[in-house]
Amino acid sequence: MNQILFKEQLSPDVYRLRVRAPLIAEERQPGQFVILQLDTEYGERIPLTIADADTEEGSITLIVQAVGKSTILLGQMPVGGRIANLVGPLGRPTHIEKVGRVVCVGGGIGVAPLYPIAQGMKKAGNHLTVVIGARTKDLMILEQEMRALADEVLICTDDGTYGHHGLVTAPLKELCAGAPKPDLVVAIGPPLMMKFCAETTKPYGVPTVVSLNSIMIDGTGMCGGCRVTVGGKTKFVCVDGPEFDGHQVDFDQLIQRLGSYRKQETIAADGCHLHTEAKKKGLVE
Amino acid sequence: MEWARLQALPQPLTPRDRLAIPCQEMPAQESLARAQNMQEVTLGYSDEQARVEAERCLQCRNAPCVQGCPVRIQIPQFIAALAAGNPARAIAIIRETSLLPAVCGRVCPQEMQCQAHCTVGKSLKSVDQAVAIGRLERYAADWERTHGAVSPPVVAPATGKKVAVVGSGPAGITVAADVRRAGHEVVLFEAFHKAGGVLVYGIPEFRLPKTIVQAELDALQQMGVTIRTNFVVGRTRKITDLITKDGFDAVFVGSGAGLPKFMEIEGENLVGVYSANEYLTRSNLMKAYDRERAETPIPSARRVAVLGGGNVAMDAARTALRLGAQEVHLIYRRTEVEMPARAEEVRHAKEEGVRIHVLQNAKRILGANGHVTGIECLRHELGDPDSSGRRRSMVIPDSEFQLPIEAVIVAIGNQSNPLIKQTTEGLDVDQWGRIVTDQQGHTSLPNVFAGGDIVLGTATVILAMGEGRRAAAAINEMLQQENSAGVPARHS
Ligand SMILES: Cc1cc2nc3c(=O)[nH]c(=O)nc-3n(C[C@H](O)[C@H](O)[C@H](O)COP(=O)(O)OP(=O)(O)OC[C@H]3O[C@@H](n4cnc5c(N)ncnc54)[C@H](O)[C@@H]3O)c2cc1C
Ligand code: SF4
Ligand code: FES
User: Fold this and answer.
1) Distance CA A151, CA B386 (A)
2) What secondary structure letter does DSSP report for B396?
3) Is residue A150 part of a domain?
4) Structural domains present in chain B
5) Which domain holds residue A47?
6) pTM
7) Is A237 a member of any domain?
8) Which H, E and C letters describe A168-179, residue by residue?
């Protein structure tokens, strides 16, 4: 179990992995995630959304951005390599039903968790518009997959190298102001992007679901490390979420809590980068 | 010395001689040194100390101590074996009723259980003077382990029946062992990447070395129990699917309490506020104390506040010291008399430098830029006893004061984790989310049993074990009936 069956680099820092996990593949639903750990003694436990699953092969697809120590190592693992610990599916599945017109907004790596939700929304009979945003053209992922699925795809890049020049909130605002206006927006991406998406849709009264990526340890509701304030109440992202009403989430707090370990994590990641560099130069094993 | 003196006395010793033997203190690491390391604080009796302490026992015919023990260990008998210098016999007697003596000898609240009833303590007018039953139990269990005398229990011939145990804490470990012994196949499912439950992620190394828990888990595996970590029952597989699709004949749920309570006060989601579960899991399971190697950190904080007065609060406070805090303030709203923590833990915490503030409670947590900077507390006084008999803690109006603090650990208890309930249709729980069972551990679902903290609310290791033993007996009985009837006689 847990072997990497397939690996592909989607952009300089982003990898698509298919991992053998038959039970998770069978049970998972859109919106759910796994927690993995590469070293049983000292490794961190990191949550990753399940981007897709293949019950026949008994595999799940993970899309990983190599940003921290574990994700960098994961990106370096060979096909056939085994992930020490993998648990899931965790979290509540996305509530999918036919509501009419759905806009799915994905920023950066957030397009990966968005994909199964977009799939589900389309399958349920909704009209589907997908808005994809990335810093630059090279960092855009899953564009073809989304095009194959959606009724309409809008592309934005921060630097204008592809599609609209600017943030995803610009086309989102147009969609909300237009007629017929969307019945539901699902926004997944960096916390700041989700915050601005929620602020954009709010004046139009368009229900907006966001998927939060807080720090987690157990993922079963035991530690409370993943907590956020939603509508003035404390919620645990791993069991009450990961999806919440974007208009109710205290994003500033989420961002602060995410940043709380940044110093340590960057140090760990830097150490790892250095190791990779040193390895390239043949300085270490 | 004391042993030589005792041997010089005319034998057998009179009760008077026995009452005159001083209670044997257990050697411990020096308090300031140990507050800097993770190694076990107490070191256990020497052979001679154990014999001296065992000689203090009066061998009461009515054995009041046994009544105080939730699993009714034959206390005078095992103590007599120790006094006779026969630890092998002592541990055999303990093992007739207890499965985890090395653990319970260390973590049971003996002063509220067996030792509370001890005649010696009563005669000497102090529970502290009771026979140190827990230390003797620990001695016997450690003797067994360090002398390689542990033999895995005999397993009956295979029955063809299969039992799933959910959760690998003391309740789950007990059920796995007892059910496996009867010849049934057992799979122990654990959500975390390591088995052991609270014994591994909650109770720190300095109070319960992980090698002891590991020895118990190794013994289970030697008996043929399969341990499947990284498996969240309810998510990875539903309980009903375990029975209908995977062919399990019975399921035992021992998933623990595991949902931390917060104070619900201002500032509780600031960076630097942790539940004790999170803090202890980071330190114990994820090894944050090993700053060089651990990838799951606990940022250092010089001044730490811990809210609560139970074992969990003491463990968190003492862990904070070991992680480098210069000041640890433990804030409790009643007095030391009402503290639910084991007396030994409170004493050890104080010796190590934890500052205990009684009759105070947090009102709000202060912050700047999203991080904790302090805590505002209110003073309390004791009022009339409440329904549980504990005196109520009442706020003194306008008594606010502030303490500068960099981290806050909330250790005010756990509620029941709702995950199993949410994913198992037809499983009855009470208003607090605890699974409802009868005396034998049957739940509202056929062939599904439960025990431990998920049934009792937050309790103790020994109670979890006791529940596990009863449920295992009921499971074994049910499966035996099915086998002899030749048809599955589903219990309902
Ligand atoms: C810090 C701390 C200190 C304590 N100190 C003492 C003490 O000194 N003395 C004492 O007697 N008691 C003490 N206790 C209490 C004692 O540890 C508990 O009462 C006891 O561990 C309960 O046992 P259990 O088997 O019911 O559950 P737990 O030990 O909680 O084990 C439950 C296990 O089930 C797993 N699990 C949960 N849900 C699922 C699922 N859906 N699928 C698979 N696995 C699952 C959990 O990960 C966990 O490993 C302490 C508790 C804590 C937290
Ligand atoms: S009550 Fe105390 S003295 Fe009496 S048998 Fe029990 S341990 Fe011994
Ligand atoms: S990750 Fe521990 S409660 Fe959510």
Assistant:
1) 64
2) P
3) yes
4) 2-146 (1.10.1060.10), 162-258+416-484 (3.50.50.60), 260-414 (3.50.50.60)
5) 2-90
6) 0.90
7) no
8) CHHHHHHHHHCC
Q: Are B408 and B305 in contact (CB under 8 A)?
A: yes
Other CB atoms within 10 Å distance of the CB of residue A78: 7
Instruction: Determine which of A76-85, A274-283, B136-145 has the lowest per-residue pLDDT on average.
Output: A274-283
User: By the 8 A CB rule, do A136 and A157 touch?
Assistant: yes
Which residues of chain A form beta strands (DSSP E)? 4-11, 14-20, 33-37, 46-54, 59-65, 85-90, 101-107, 127-134, 152-157, 164-165, 184-188, 208-211, 227-230, 233-236, 243-245
Residue B227's SS3 state is strand
Last residue of a domain, one of A196, A211, A226: A211
Let me know whether A49 and A118 are in one domain: no
Taking the Cβ of residue B247 and every Cβ of chain A, the question of whether any pair is shorter than 8 Å is answered with no
Q: What is the SS3 assignment for B351? A: helix
| Cα three-residue angle B119-B120-B125, rounded to 5 degrees | 95
ipTM surpasses cut 0.90: no
Place of tokens 């399940």: A50
Pair B106, B138: CB distance under 8 Å: yes
Among protein residues, the one whose CA lies closest to atom 49 of ligand 1: B197
Which of A218, A228, A267 is best to mutate for the B interface (most B CBs within 10 A)? A218
Please report the beta strands in B338-463, taking only residues with DSSP state E, as ranges in sequence order: 355-357, 360-368, 371-385, 391-395, 401-404, 407-410, 414-416, 448-450
Residue-wise pLDDT tens digits, B318-342: 999 999 899 999 999 999 988 999 8
Residue of A nearest to B271 (CA): A257
B236 contacts on A by Cβ (under 8 Å) = 23-24, 27, 87-89
Mean pLDDT, residues B240-269 taken together: 94
- Decide: A119 and A24 in contact? Cβ < 8 Å: no
How far is it, in rounded angstroms, from Cα A220 to Cα B420?
10
Distance CA A249, CA A209 (A): 10
